[in-house]
From TrEMBL:
Entry superkingdom: Bacteria
Domain (Lipid/polyisoprenoid-binding YceI-like): residue spans on this chain: 5-175
Name the record gives this protein: YceI family protein
Amino acid sequence: METINYIIVSSESSIDWIGRKVTGAHNGTIGIKNGNFIFSDGKIKGGNVVIDTTSIKILDISDAAANAQFAGHLASDDFFSIEKFPTASFEILNVKELLNGNFYLEGNLTIKDITHPAGFEVSLQNQANTAALSGKLVIDRTLYDIKFRSGNFFKDLGDTLIYNDFELDFTINAEAVFSGQSQN
């Protein structure tokens, strides 16, 4: 059984986020700092992804001042507390093979130093020395002490309510690392 380590190529990977509220939605991007995937006989078996929370960008607000204000709010303790927690991570603990190159990943998601189990489906394209995983992870922000304008914690928010779930749509590219020998 051949085991190969694939290192994430941050510059060739992307995460798009969407957060919804009663009156609409906001969207943007967030970068991947580093990570890896472990493959055994061409199938994903484990790994981790480290997200750079300091890289969060807002794409739907074109006014520079409003964009900067919103970015500052996302960086604050109301949301991601990026000075204290500049990264978030997902560690793969279990993988279930589905059909047609799809897998269900289960693991630990850590945001703001708070860890909860998470699971989601990914599509895998594995060719020669490269691998690409894509999928969507839906996160309940309140599990990670991100309660700002959540209906679970605040009453009478009306149209200022922000929904608890936010989405991360991702495509992560990785390249195989060989040390001159098969890794076992």
